[in-house]
Amino acid sequence: MTRQKKQFEIWSVITILFLFFFCIFLIFPLFGILKQSVVDVEAGGLSLKHFQRFFSQRYYSQTIFNSVKVTIAITVCTLLIGVPFAYFYSFYRLRGAKFLFVISILCVMSAPFIGAYSWILLLGRSGIITQFLKHVFGLQIGSIYGFDGILLVQSLKLFPLVFIYMNGAFKNIDRSLLEASANLGCVGVKRFFKVILNLSMPTLLAASLIVFMRAFADFGTPLLIGEGYRTFPVEIYNQYLGEVGTDYNFAAAISVLAIIMTAIVFLIQKWATSHYQFSINALNPMEKKDPKGIRGILVYLYCYLLVIIAFVPQLYVIYLSFRNSDQAIFKEGYSLASYRAALDKLLVRSINNTLLLGIGTLAIIIVFSVLIAYLVVRRKSFLNNAIDTLSMIPYIMPGSVIGIALVIAFSRPPLVLTGTMAIMIASFTIRRMPYSIRSANATLMQIPMSIEEAAISLGASKLKTFAKITVPMMSSGIISGAILSWVSIVTELSSSIILYNNRTITLTMSAYMAISRGNYGLACAFATVLTALTTISLLAYLYISKSEDIKL
Amino acid sequence: MREKITIKHAKKVYGSAVIIPDLNLEIDEGEFFTLLGPSGCGKTTLLRMIAGFNTIEGGEFFFNDKLINTINPAKRNIGMVFQNYAIFPHLSVRKNVEFGLRNKHVDKQTIRAKAEEYLKLMQIEKLADRMPAQLSGGQQQRVALARALCIEPHVLLMDEPLSNLDAKLRVEMRAVIKDIQHRVGITTVYVTHDQEEAMAISDRIAVMKDGVIQHVGTPQNIYQRPANIFVSTFIGRSNIFEGTMRIDGNMPKVKIHDYEYEAPQVKEDWRSTEKVRVSVRPEELVMHPGGGEGLSAVIDDRVFLGLNTHYFMHLSDDMPVEVIEESSFDNRFKIGDSVSLTVNTKRINIFTHDTALNIVEGVENDVPVEV
Fold it and tell me: pLDDT tens digits for B171-212?
């Protein structure tokens, strides 16, 4: 009997290194937050009193209800506006399709609070449109603060996620399936619901989940526009750094509840998706129709109005950045005064930090996701499956929870990282990990095993095969995933607001600081620089890749 | 370099499923050897064990006298052609072909010259600087073959290399592969489920079923004297009749229904067998107008295929029978006609009823068959 010996090789070392990394930067902080949530500081020992306090006081428990209610409303809204948009985009030959695509991506890639802030300037109490309507027509529009405001801002920001996902699904529908359904007498709206939407159901559910997770964890929007409508992430932040005194333990308890909530939603989504187990692969992709007649006009009107309304806030911010201003008031005349002020207020440092953090994190994420995908897909083992599962945990952790967990874990010896770039990079890496690894896994799964076997049979070592064959073949998939990682790192707010300090301040943080100090002109200048950065990144990516393939 | 492949007591297990229980095989140097069988029979598994991509749970694999069980696949010096070609999509045709030599510390001039030689051999030297996406299926196949041969491997392994091509190209590439193999003279193991392809291309064929080799022999012998009923039905088409055998004087006589004929080809040792199965290929049945000697049947359908015409009919007990006859101008038989069928007795194969083994003279099986 001969058996091929399993050699102890470089990949086993990498597995161990990753497990070590996950233990330090994920398990340990997560455990820390769990521990903090059940520690009784005054009396010593363990207790559930923080949870008791949360549920017994309506002031706190209301936040769960609020968060869930507004998040569900946002998810439904994004589907209602995003699905028709994706349908028109993928089934009609629209003029300016590229424009629609780029603008809607820019909407979803904007920093979390810019939309909220800009809508306040437009529709808020003293907003330009509000004032205009009041003075010219005597009209009163309803308040955009609270529930309605969060819903408006988030739906217009997040619908492009639904669009990107559904566009991918619609492209995958085989033309012959639609022809078959027409042949069997099912056309029009009926066909859309019975065939097209049903075929895209797994993707629709995936899109709903990602919208839900983003909206649920969003921190900037409810903070600015929520006013009395108090949500989970804001409450965590308030408890952690609030003006009314800090309570780490209570913040930790709320964090634990937030993780449980998102975990439940995640499991429900998985359960729902399991009912739609099929794979389609378009041999004959859809042929786009020319939009004609009254229907064509409506299609155009819908698409362009939607995208323009969603993008107006960013344009308005850019416009305001060139206006003269004094603190919260914009004055007549245009100048670069806001940019000069920004230069005095760490603009250069913010840009440098943003680029440094972005590039550093991106490099780590790319290396990690390629290596982990290889371990998970090509070298299945118990430990590598464990890495795969661990890498999914941050998916259900809102950004502010990750921030707090890292602070709790690394503010004491043996490892003190608070206030350093390292902790920011760790947090961004952890936050992006579930997305980048999943996208790398999917890319690698599409590469047939026989390509690597061919290289080995031609005498290449395993390491050489990985470097010369596997990695280059994965690169296109990795790059399309990296662009979104890049932009979300650059616009990250919810964990950096907890982790940043004056030395590690980023563009997003500078913009947010300016808003919170009521220095609106300055905020607009920072926000404009940020928008310029994301726009340039996106256009550069589209130019290099020459495709619309963006993975999330 | 020519290598002989010897496999002794090979065993393959996935979890609790035994894919190959105990397999012995010898493949001669320079031979074009084909593993043929239905999907799931273990043929690709065996090929991948030779290549080193599957673990070996038992047994010994030799190239000449060298045990290769524990040799890393990268060091076995094997040329492999995959079902999907596995052309590296990010490398040009030339880089694909040079890839193997670049792993071998050969100087650049030699690499270039060798690659050029095999590009020419496969008649793709004009495509050398194209990227794989710009190639047709047949061209990719040629690149895959050039790449595999360029390292001058000990053996060439091919895993269903033609199954992704259309029918016409398949026949063309089959001739190319056979021609190249003869010119290079390399020991080749070829996997396919297409019996016609196997017959056309191979020196010898091993017919596999459930991880067990049923018959190893030349295409002609496997077709004309299949070792058992499985081989007789898998290779070509066969009508299988239940029958009885008796000895009349010195002559064995086989009876199907009420039609009895002499079977002198039955081996001496097996003449006492009583219950037999008779395998008759459609072209070995001869049709006569109804009422004469032979099996009586009624024609259900007739399919004209140019050179031949296929007749589908049923016997008095409803058993379906297929007959092939060279097409004639006068259409002797029509749908609904009653006919009598006689057999071309010498070519018929006779099997025992219980073990399904062939008991006529002339079976040449290079693997021992357990009874």
Answer: 988 999 999 899 889 999 999 999 999 999 999 999 999 999
Give the distance from residue B84's alpha carbon to the nearest chain A alpha carbon, in angstroms: 8
Asked if ipTM goes beyond 0.85, one says no
pLDDT per residue as tens digits for the range A282-293: 667 777 888 888
Return the structure tokens found at A514.
């300016």
Q: B12 touching A, CB under 8 A?
A: no
Distant-in-sequence, close-in-space partners of A543: CB < 8 Å, separation ≥ 6: none
Say whether B110 sits in a helix, a strand or coil.
helix
Supply the mean pLDDT for chain B: 89
Name residues of chain A where pLDDT drops below 70: 1-8, 142, 242-246, 277-283, 546-552
Sheet containing B17-27: order of strands: B17-27, B5-14, B58-63, B66-67
pLDDT at A5: 43
Q: Does domain A1-46+324-552 have CATH number 3.30.530.20?
A: no
Cβ–Cβ of B56/A3 closer than 8 Å? Answer: yes
Tell me which chain A residues have a C-beta less than 8 angstroms from the C-beta of B51: 453, 457
* Residues of A whose CB is below 8 A from B132: none
**DSSP single-letter state for residue B228:** B
Pairs of CB atoms within 8 A across A/B = 75
Q: Does domain A48-320 have CATH number 1.10.3720.10?
A: yes
The answer to whether A458 contacts B57, with C-beta atoms less than 8 Å apart, is no
Please give the Cα distance from B58 to B7 (Å, whole number): 11
CA–CA separation, B94 and B100 (whole Å)? 11
Contact: B51, A464; criterion CB under 8 Å = no
Of the partner residues B86, B104, B151, the one whose CB lies closest to the CB of residue A453: B86
Summary mean pLDDT of chain A = 84
Give the phi and the psi of residue B13 in degrees, each rounded to 5: -130, 130
- Domain segments of chain A: what residues? 1-46+324-552, 48-320
CA–CA distance, A483 with A435 (Å, rounded to integer): 12
Supply the pTM of this predicted model.
Answer: 0.79
